[in-house]
Design brief:
Helix content is 60%, strand content 17%. The protein is α+β, with helices and mostly antiparallel strands. Among the domains are: 165 residues, no CATH class; 127 residues, Glucose Permease (Domain IIA). The protein is rod-shaped. The two termini are 102 Å apart.
Length: 445
């Protein structure tokens, strides 16, 4: 059975692959190699397999090349999109910085206007006191003149009575002479009295006219003072409200902060002194009360400004960066476990300058496990900021820094996956979200 199958298979193969002989001739001999149908089939199958493999491999390589080109194009497109987003974020950051500078300029302009208005207010108060003093002098002069007029009239009446009585007792020529002299004296006295009366009347009319003018000036001064007070009160409201909102948005007690700053600066000028006007035992006037309220608000504004410099209301990176991780629980980038992230991450190139976000004192500048190169700054109000994974430190322990001072360079020291800044804010030793302070100051600085 097997022989028959073999014979049939061999006959089938001979149709397509007849037996061939390959002659090999040399100088001395001639040999041949017999190529059976099965051998030819194996050679043909091998050649076909090699050709097929070559075609498939070429196709795979060609497809891989095409796919790689597509991947490269996609990567380039992603890179361009990412770069445009970075440029957009940088433009937005620059715009926010310009808005902060404009707000600071408006704040300085408001302070200058408040100073000018305060000077005008003091000058108006001085003119008002001078006008009141002049009015009092005129009224006193008028009363004295009227009293002198009444005294002259009384003396003239007494003198006339004496002349009448003396004239009745004197005889003849002596009485007539005496009466004539008395009449001349009386006439002169009456003329003098009439002249004094006319002068007193004219002085009284002038005094009344001057009093009306002074009253009008006093009314104008009151209106001007009221306008100055309204502008000052509006300026104080516009200036203090954003600062008060900023501190409250950051969860800070404004009254406690103001009191703490006032205690710290009481020996360097402290709050402004209230206006003190003599009231002669009476209650302070409405203008004096309004002026004292404005001065208290101005003092509060100044204390807010000092407090804002000492709290971390700023971004530690001014160059282009990418916000890569927020505050709170997240998957650990090293092992994937769920862990608390006690700060925020700003990614950027190694060497990117880093700046202090508020006034304070450096309490640590060196290596700390996990953090790498770390800078700690202690601020007022129990606040501490931390700047981790630095490539270079630019401050020392005990050094005082101000907001905007360069404290180090961005790096990848410690437990990281790439160069970035790990930024923390701690209040009373407890980590809080730094973005609370950064967002609170967006509409102020």
């Amino acid at each position: 059975m097997r022989t028959r199958l073999a014979i049939r298979a061999n006959a089938l193969l001979e149709r397509h692959f007849p037996e061939r002989r390959l002659f090999l001739r040399s100088d001395n001999d001639t040999r041949f190699i017999r190529l059976k149908p099965a051998t030819q089939l194996i050679a043909f199958s091998g050649s076909a397999a090699v050709v097929a493999w070559t075609i498939i491999a070429t196709a795979v390589l060609l497809m891989d090349s095409i796919g790689s080109g597509n991947f490269r194009e996609q990567a380039k497109r992603d890179q361009r999109i990412y770069q445009s987003r970075l440029n957009g974020m940088a433009d937005e950051r620059d715009m926010r910085a310009e808005e902060a500078l404009a707000a600071q300029e408006r704040f300085n302009t408001a302070l200058a206007q408040i100073s000018v208005m305060q000077s005008q207010l003091l000058e108006a108060e001085t003119r008002l006191r001078e006008a009141e003093t002049g009015l009092g002098v005129v009224q006193s002069t008028l009363r004295r003149t009227m009293k002198e007029r009444d005294t002259a009239r009384s003396e003239a009446t007494v003198l006339s009575s004496q002349i009448d009585s003396d004239g009745a007792a004197m005889p003849g020529t002596v009485a007539a002479a005496t009466n004539e002299q008395a009449l001349d004296f009386m006439t002169n006295a009456l003329a003098l009295t009439a002249a004094e009366r006319d002068q007193v009347t004219a002085d009284a009319e002038d005094a009344l006219s001057h009093a009306d003018e002074l009253a009008h000036q006093v009314a104008m001064l009151h209106d001007q003072n009221d306008q100055i007070f309204r502008q000052l009160e509006e300026a104080m409201t516009v200036s203090i409200k954003p600062l008060d909102k900023m501190f409250r948005s950051a969860g800070m007690n404004t009254d406690r902060i103001i009191e703490q700053v006032r205690r710290g600066y009481s020996g360097q000028g402290g709050p402004l002194s209230p206006i003190s006007l003599s009231t002669m035992g009476e209650e302070p006037s409405l203008d004096a009360s309004r002026a004292n309220r404005i001065l208290n608000q101005l003092d509060r504004l100044n204390l807010y400004r000092i407090a804002a410099e000492k709290a971390p209301f700023a971004v530690p990176v001014k160059a282009s960066y990418r916000f890569t991780s927020s505050f709170g629980y997240r998957n650990d980038p090293k092992n994937g476990s769920r862990r608390m992230h006690s700060g925020v991450d700003f990614a950027g190139p190694v060497g990117t300058p880093l700046y202090s976000t508020g006034d304070g004192v450096v309490t640590h500048a060196g290596w700390q496990s996990g953090y790498g190169r770390l800078v700690k700054i202690e601020h007022q109000f129990g606040i501490e900021t931390r700047y981790a994974h630095l490539s270079k430190l630019r401050v020392k322990v005990g050094q005082r820094v101000s907001r905007g001072d360069r404290i180090g360079d961005m790096g990848a020291s410690g437990r990281v996956t790439g160069p970035h800044l790990h930024y923390e804010v701690r209040v009373g030793g407890q980590a809080v979200n730094p973005m609370t302070y950064i967002k609170a100051a967006n509409n102020v600085f």
